[in-house]
């Protein structure tokens, strides 16, 4: 893609979390172009709007037509709000409304694949436990994505927010092909930032020719060697200690539901890092360069 703007697909639902995600990512990628997508899902209009329409029609066919018409108008308005937020944050932006019937995480990953964006951005409300695992759009999107997915937790603390503009990139490093793919993606998006290659429990040699004078290495130990939550906690602590703007992890791209439930380092990071996390699928090969401000 050369020096053209990074293209970011934003999953926007009108919530504070999705709005904050736009503001935060704009500080990480200040010269991006956003496609702000609002998914229009059943029952295709808010409860208040449906009640008003039903009282005004009392006929099923007329009610359905009215819900379609007014629901689309409502969806367009929400997407437009996201565009306004993106433009205020310094991005160029355009709205998208997509009608779908559930499975928002899957729908967003398919949309990202079709329009071939460089990054999928999602906000997370920071749910914990089984409710988060079973109900999180961001978890499902990360699991099925073919493009890198950046998940922004809500809310960020002031210190974490301050790190976004100039903080380093903390890279989970195990020497695997997936980690190398993630490192390549991080280097393309943030070529001017320091990248901290961080290995947990075992020393892992960095790339033989990293080609980046700002690349450094770090080796840390977890409390329970081999446990994904423990590894995630250790990486999160390292990110906090080094005031990292974002944590980058590779993913093997498995799609089995069992893998979602049991977790991995990548999935554990989403729930335990409390800062922006980018998960890069192992087969990602997009070419994009992001100018740093």
TrEMBL record:
InterPro entries in UniProt: Rossmann-like_a/b/a_fold, Universal_stress_UspA, UspA
Span of domain UspA: 7-152, 230-281
Superkingdom of origin organism: Bacteria
One Pfam family cited in the UniProt record for this chain: Usp
Name of the featured protein: Universal stress protein
Record-annotated membrane-spanning stretches: none
Similarity comment: Belongs to the universal stress protein A family.
